[in-house]
């Protein structure tokens, strides 16, 4: 599968809002205001903070992303999280392939490797216009993804930022997601 070449990691850093994704077991079902924040570390790896809001609580997981092949110009990354989030002991690694990004680094199409089981549409803003969304849908279709599985992620405008929102520190969302709830 063709991926972006020569991704500028520095420009890619920052906050991305999830516009749509394939539902998966490692994200809370029916989460809202889902976002990812990427921070480049001195060693060239990326700190990953994934956050979403579920049942009035903020849930999050942190991990690390790194180039799958340091000698390649392809935007094929690996992401590693430790689970369960309330007792992070088991490393889980997955693919994070940048399939398309616009020239201004404002929206991106990300796949979870060659299996086509995972797909995300991300944007720097909480909402995306229909023309851009449909363009990314077509890109995904052209790459062989079944876009009928995409689920749009509800986003507030402005997004929640308050620290007084309760956090799920027990990882209940993670257990529920494993059970499909």
UniProtKB/TrEMBL annotation:
Residues 7-155 form the Lipocalin/cytosolic fatty-acid binding domain. One of its GO terms (cellular component) is cytoplasm. GO terms for biological process: lipid metabolic process; response to reactive oxygen species. It comes from the Eukaryota. Coiled coil: none annotated. Gene3D superfamilies: 2.40.128.20. It holds the Pfam family Lipocalin_2. Belongs to the calycin superfamily. Lipocalin family. PANTHER family: APOLIPOPROTEIN D (PTHR10612). This is TEMPERATURE-INDUCED LIPOCALIN, temperature-induced lipocalin. It comes from Hibiscus trionum (Flower of an hour).
